[in-house]
Design brief:
562 residues; 2 domains; 19 helices; single chain; 8-stranded mixed beta sheet; 4-stranded parallel beta sheet; Glucose Oxidase, domain 1; binds FE2/S2 (inorganic) cluster; alpha/beta
C-alpha cells in the first residue's frame, strides 16, 4: 500500500520507500538532473496533460501550446511540468475512439493522482480527448483548467468554402450519387482539412469545447479561437496563469461544478444545435461529479431553447465565424436570461460577473442570433421514449428532414456496422419509406461507434433521395445530418427491444410526441426474446473489461466502477 502524503508541491504523493524523508531527498536529486533547484521546487506545481501525437493531426501545434501554457505558469510563479497521456484521434483510431474514452479518462486520472502537482492544465481537443480528460480530472479531485486545440481554419475547393466534416460527408454523398468524379473527390480530399486543429463545424469537438466553457472549466473565450491563431496561444498563456491561481486558492472542481453549471451547459448545447455525442459525455461527467442529471433534463431544456448559432450541420457557418462573432462569451450574453449566473468558473468569478464585461452580439455579424430573432425553433435536440427505446434515444432534430420527423415504415435490419456494408445491394429493395435499423453497435456491443448515420443506398441517392429514417444503438458524428435516431437504450447486445426487430416490422417515429415505437404485438416479442441470445464479447484485454463494465448510453457509457 503506498504511503499517503497530503503535502503540496513536489512533496505531494510521495513514492513509497518506507522512509518519507528519503523519498523527498530522492525526488529532489532526480529533479536536479533536470535543472530544478530547491527554489524552483518551492513553487506551486502545475501539471500539463500533453496529448500531442503524430497520430492526432487535430493536435498538430500542441507542442507550441504546451510552451505557451508553461510561460503562463512561470509568469504567475508556478512550476510547469508536462506529461503525456493517451491521445485519441477520431479518424486514425479503430474501431472507434469511444471504446477508449474511458481508458483515456483512467490514464488521465491515475497520472494526475500518481504524480506531484497542485493543479493541472488539460490540453485536449479531438472529440473524446476533452470528455476523457474532464472525467479523469473530476475524479482525481484537484484544481484544473481545460484548454482545447481549437478548430481548423476552413479550406476551399473550386470556390467552395469547405470544412470537416459536414462537407466531407456532403461531398462523399454526391460522389456516391455519381454527381462528383473520381478526380474531383481526390482534389476535395486534399482541401477539406486546411490546417491543424479540430473539425471546424459544430461537431463533437466544437460542441464539447463550448459546453466546457459553459461549465466554467475554461478561461473565458477559450472554446472558439482557431488552432492556427495567436489568440489560441494567448488563451494557453492565460490558462497557465489561471492554473497557478487555482492551485494557490485550492479551487476544486467540486466548487465549480453543480447542477446549475450542467443546466447552463445544456442550454448552450441546445442553442448551438450541437452534437448528440455531448449528451453522453455530459451524463458521464455529471455522474463523476455526483450530480443528478438525466436524458429528460436535456429534453426539458432543449424544448425551451431556440437555435441561435449558424454553424454546420444545423446552419451554414463554421467555427471561425463563431469566433469572429465573439465566441462563447457573446453567445452566453444572448442566453443570459436563461443561464444560472451564480455558477462559479475557474477564474474565481461567477458566470454573471464575467458576462457583465461582455457586449451583446453585434449587428455586423450573422453567426450568433438573438433570442428575439433566432436562427431556428426550439428543440434542436430531442429525447425519444417508446417501445423501441424504453430508457431513451436521442435525435438531432435541427439536422433532420422535417417531413420525416413523423414517419411510419417497415424495418430493414443490419446486424452490425460490418453487416451494413451490403447497404448498396439493390436486392435489399430499400425504399425511401423504410426505417433502417442498425443494432449491436451500442456501448457493450461495439463500443458505440459513430455508425448510426448509415449511408443512403447508392441507387436511391442516384434518384435524389437524401434522407431515410435510421434507428440504432450507435452514435453519429456531430458533423453528420439526417433523420437519425441514436443511442437506443437498452442496446441490442444486452437484450434491448432493438435486438428483437425483424425485417418488415413497422416502426413509428413521432418527434413531436417524443415517441419511437416498434409496432409488434408484445406476445410476439416475448416469443422472439426466448429465441434470442447475446452476441459474443471480446475474450481478453481492455475490450473484455470494457464490455463487462460499461454502462448504457443513457447513463453516460462510463465504466460502472469509476
Ligand atoms: Fe479530430 Fe474531428 S477528427 S475533431
Amino acid at each position: 500500500m503506498a504511503e499517503m502524503d497530503e503535502g503540496s508541491g513536489i512533496e505531494r504523493h510521495l513514492t513509497s520507500y518506507g522512509d518519507r524523508e528519503f523519498s523527498k531527498y530522492m525526488r529532489r536529486a532526480f529533479l536536479a538532473s533536470a535543472g530544478f533547484d530547491r527554489q524552483d521546487l518551492q513553487r506551486p506545481i502545475v501539471g500539463i496533460v500533453d496529448t500531442s501525437s503524430d497520430y492526432n493531426t487535430c493536435h498538430r501545434q500542441m507542442p507550441e501550446m504546451v510552451q505557451a501554457v508553461k510561460r503562463g505558469v512561470l509568469e504567475a510563479g508556478g512550476l510547469p511540468l508536462a506529461f503525456p497521456t493517451i491521445s485519441l484521434h477520431e479518424i486514425l483510431t479503430a474501431p472507434t475512439t469511444m471504446l477508449f474514452r474511458n481508458l483515456e479518462a483512467m490514464d488521465t486520472e491515475e497520472m494526475i493522482r500518481a504524480q506531484p502537482m497542485d493543479a493541472v492544465v488539460l490540453l485536449g481537443g479531438c472529440d473524446k480527448t476533452v470528455p476523457a480528460q474532464l472525467m479523469g480530472a473530476i475524479s482525481a479531485g484537484i484544481p484544473f483548467v481545460s484548454v482545447v486545440a481549437g478548430p481548423m481554419l476552413t479550406g476551399s475547393w473550386r470556390g467552395q468554402r469547405l470544412g470537416a466534416c459536414t462537407d466531407c460527408r456532403r461531398l462523399w454523398a454526391q460522389y456516391r450519387a455519381g454527381e462528383i468524379s473520381h478526380e474531383e473527390i481526390r482534389e476535395i480530399e486534399q482541401a477539406l482539412c486546411a490546417t491543424g486543429g479540430t473539425c471546424m463545424v459544430m461537431g463533437t469537438a466544437s460542441t464539447m469545447a463550448a459546453v466546457t466553457e459553459a461549465l466554467g472549466l475554461m478561461v473565458p473565450g477559450g472554446a472558439a479561437p482557431p488552432h492556427a491563431t495567436g489568440e489560441r496561444l494567448i488563451r494557453c498563456v492565460e490558462s497557465g496563469r489561471c492554473a497557478v491561481d487555482l492551485a494557490r486558492n485550492n479551487r476544486l472542481p467540486s466548487q465549480i461544478l453543480s447542477r446549475k453549471s450542467f443546466e447552463n451547459a445544456i442550454t448552450v448545447l441546445a442553442a448551438l444545435g450541437g452534437s448528440t455525442n455531448v449528451i453522453v459525455h455530459l451524463l458521464a461527467l455529471a455522474r463523476r461529479a455526483s450530480i443528478e442529471l438525466s436524458l429528460d433534463d436535456f429534453d426539458r431544456i432543449a424544448a425551451k431553447t431556440p437555435l441561435l448559432v449558424d454553424c454546420k450541420p444545423a446552419g451554414c457557418g463554421y467555427m471561425e465565424d463563431l469566433h469572429k462573432a465573439g465566441g462563447l462569451p457573446v453567445l452566453m450574453k444572448e442566453l443570459e436570461s436563461r443561464l444560472h449566473l451564480d455558477a462559479l468558473t475557474v477564474t474565481g468569478k461567477t458566470l454573471g460577473a464575467l458576462l457583465e464585461e461582455v457586449e451583446r452580439a453585434g449587428k455586423w455579424q450573422t453567426t450568433i442570433r438573438t433570442l428575439a430573432e433566432p436562427l431556428g425553433p426550439v428543440a434542436s435536440l430531442a429525447v425519444l421514449h417508446g417501445s423501441l427505446c424504453p430508457d431513451g434515444a436521442v435525435i438531432k432534430a435541427a439536422a433532420a428532414t422535417p417531413e420525416l420527423m413523423k414517419h411510419r415504415g417497415p424495418a430493414l435490419v443490419f446486424e452490425s456496422p460490418e453487416d451494413a456494408q451490403r447497404i448498396d445491394d439493390p436486392a435489399l429493395g430499400i425504399t425511401p419509406d423504410h426505417v433502417l435499423i442498425l443494432r449491436n453497435s451500442g456501448p457493450v456491443g461495439a463500443g458505440m461507434p459513430e455508425a448510426g448515420s448509415l449511408p443512403i443506398p447508392k441507387y436511391l441517392s442516384a434518384q435524389g433521395v437524401r434522407d431515410i429514417v435510421r434507428v440504432s444503438d450507435a452514435r453519429m458524428s456531430g458533423t453528420a445530418y439526417g433523420t437519425v435516431c441514436l443511442h437506443c437504450s437498452p442496446e441490442a447486445a444486452v437484450g434491448g427491444p432493438l435486438a428483437l426487430v425483424q425485417n418488415g416490422d413497422m416502426i413509428e417515429l413521432n418527434v413531436e410526441e417524443r415517441r419511437l415505437d416498434l409496432l409488434v404485438d408484445p406476445a410476439e416479442l416475448e416469443a422472439r426474446r426466448l429465441q434470442w441470445s447475446p452476441p459474443p464479447t471480446a475474450p481478453r484485454g481492455w475490450l473484455k473489461l470494457h464490455a463487462e463494465h460499461v454502462l448504457q448510453a443513457h447513463l453516460g457509457a462510463d465504466l460502472d466502477f469509476l
